[in-house]
Design brief:
By secondary structure, this protein is α/β, with parallel strands linked by helices. 50% of the residues lie in helices and 13% in strands. The strands form two sheets. Strands 1, 2, 5, 6, 7, 8, 9 and 10 form an eight-stranded mixed beta sheet that branches.
Length: 417
């Protein structure tokens, strides 16, 4: 048999095999594509309604307006604080202006709720819990902030009880097809939304409005995902609006927006804009940037040049470890992504704390008053009981640890990490 004929006969089976493989692969791809579009057609529960598109120029203008409004709000708040503190100083010359800043941390918020309860037991004197002139919260810290703002033992016990008793439906996966890109998130929070709504009722709104009537501030930090700006919602103003309209729904929406971790939990649309976790822009809200001429100390010196500037004290509760814990990480993309996010947020918190200390030093250097910064975080020797998310045993254990740490006045750190 000629060599060329023999070669041709040998190559035919290989050619058929390759064609069969390609045909099979194409059939699988076509099947997967068909299945994907079929699922898209019939599984729609995880989607949010499509939003109307806007011109880039329109969004840019909105972003600029948002930034301008934020700056104006800061200036207005500072002027109110100056007058409020001046009136307090006439009664108590040693008065201080105290701000509580509550960070994110998911289920680790149980540390913050326990810490506040423990701190509230400290006898009057150095290190005792002051009456806060302002409270701000982000993510899980946002859930705690309204109760800390009211500040009674009953309110602190209520939010601690909430974190000590997580429900099984606080966070639930979207089901078999949770991974579809059309979904607003991988998981839903029906139980958490239900329990928050049950707390944000009309009587609660009235109490928030009353507590803020003497220029006390309650700010909930979110991120406007449309404009890319950090937005601090004035929760007192939101409560006032709720009282007028007899509808407290927006209160829980603001809190859920602050904790809407992108991808994990669905964003919240409020007044036409889409909001996600405030952690995207900052680990905690410290009042924002302002021109040195508009700072509290500068305004005070203009308005009351002969009166000493009251001391400002920031109390920062970090609902996590401040430094990432070390561990061996397996080279799997979900593990690597989760670990990277954890390290990123820890680094952001450290940067935010260092910025706050630098801001305090600059304020003093400019002669605009004395600023103290104290912070606390989950002790590095505390370990979770397991790896489960929103696990009741772990959260109760962490709440107990928070109470222990909060009752010890020596727990506060006074230098930057």
């Amino acid at each position: 048999m000629p060599k060329t004929e023999m070669s041709s006969k040998t190559s035919r089976p290989w050619g058929c095999a390759i064609l069969s493989f390609i045909s099979g692969a194409l059939a699988v791809i076509v099947l997967l594509v068909a299945a994907y579009f079929g699922i898209r057609m019939f599984v729609t529960s995880g989607r949010m309604p499509p939003r109307q598109l806007k011109l880039v120029s329109e969004l840019a203008a909105k972003s600029a307006d948002e930034t301008k409004q934020s700056d104006q709000d800061n200036i207005y708040d500072i002027k109110r604080l100056v007058e409020t503190m001046y009136a307090r100083q006439q009664i108590d010359p040693q008065c201080t202006m105290d701000f509580l800043l509550l960070s994110g941390g998911g289920d680790r918020g149980a540390f913050g709720t326990g810490f506040l309860l423990g701190w509230s037991t400290v006898a009057p004197g150095v290190g005792a819990m002051p009456k806060f002139q302002g409270v701000s919260g982000v993510s899980t810290g946002a859930f705690i902030a309204p109760f800390a703002f009211l500040g009674t033992n009953a309110d602190l016990a209520t939010v601690d009880d909430l974190f000590r008793n997580p429900k099984s439906d606080w966070v639930t996966p979207r089901g078999t097809f949770f991974f579809l890109p059309e979904n607003a998130s991988l998981a839903t929070v029906p139980g958490l939304e239900r329990d928050l709504r049950s707390q944000m009722h009309m009587e609660f709104a009235k109490r928030i409005e009353q507590a803020g009537s003497d220029n006390h501030l309650l700010l909930i930090q979110t991120t406007n995902i449309d404009t890319g700006n950090g937005v601090a919602f004035d929760f007192v103003a939101a409560a006032r609006k709720a009282v007028v309209s007899n509808d407290p729904n927006e209160l829980s929406q603001i809190l859920l927006a602050s904790g809407a971790v992108p991808g994990a939990f669905a964003p919240r649309e409020i007044q036409g804009s889409l909001y996600v976790d405030g952690n995207v822009v900052s680990s905690f809200f410290d009042g924002g940037d302002q021109d040195a001429r508009d700072s509290f100390g500068a305004v005070w010196k203009r308005e009351h040049p002969t009166a000493p500037i009251p001391k400002t004290r920031y109390w920062v509760i970090i609902n996590e470890y401040v430094h990432p814990t070390a561990e061996i990480v397996q080279p799997l993309w979900p593990t690597l992504m989760a670990r990277s996010l954890f390290i990123s947020v820890r680094s952001s918190e450290i940067t935010s704390l260092r910025y706050l200390y630098a801001k305090a030093k600059l304020t003093k250097a400019l002669g605009d008053g004395d600023v103290e910064v104290r912070w606390v975080a989950i002790p590095p020797n505390w370990k979770p009981l397991n790896d489960a998310f929103f696990d009741q045993a772990t959260m109760r254990n962490l709440s107990d640890e928070g109470k222990r740490v909060g009752a010890d006045v020596n727990s506060w750190m006074t230098t930057a990490p």
